[in-house]
Design a protein that fits this description.
Length: 141
């Protein structure tokens, strides 16, 4: 049997006029995060296959340098994806814990537009901007 919160019309989008982080919204974001994670994991698998195929000995030094540069870029991209998967997993845990959608700094709801654009967001836009300004100031010290 399908739970009511697990049934979402395909065209469902969270709306401001419904209760914040109700079961339908949580299910919407859970599905969005899982789809994103699966896409990243598929890309990672493709990257690994590509790296395994390109791990051959190239005699020309210019070709070898070019291939090494490509490998380094692929590995950096894969590392970014790994960190992103970790953030997605943390967002899924916040959904399970009932903390998803609320700013970790202020406790205020994060706007639905922000969450739809960046479902791993942990802060409201205002709190994020304050955080980044403080980071810049301390980095310049």
């Amino acid at each position: 049997m399908v739970k009511p919160e697990n049934f979402l019309p395909e065209d469902y989008r969270p709306a401001e006029d419904e209760p914040f982080m109700n079961d339908r919204q949580l299910e919407y974001f859970r599905r969005k995060l899982i789809a994103w994670k699966n896409e990243l994991l598929e890309q990672s698998a493709e990257t690994l296959e590509g790296l395994a195929e390109s791990a051959r000995n190239v005699p020309d030094i210019a070709d070898r340098a070019s291939e090494e540069t490509d490998r380094a870029l692929e590995l950096r991209t894969r590392d970014r994806q790994r960190k992103l998967v970790s953030k997605i997993d943390a967002a899924l845990r916040r959904i399970d814990n009932g903390e998803y959608g609320y700013c970790e700094m202020t406790g205020e709801p994060i706007s639905l537009k922000r969450l739809d654009a960046r479902p791993i967001a942990t802060m409201t836009l205002e709190a994020q901007e304050r955080h980044e300004r403080r980071e810049r100031v301390h980095r310049d010290d």
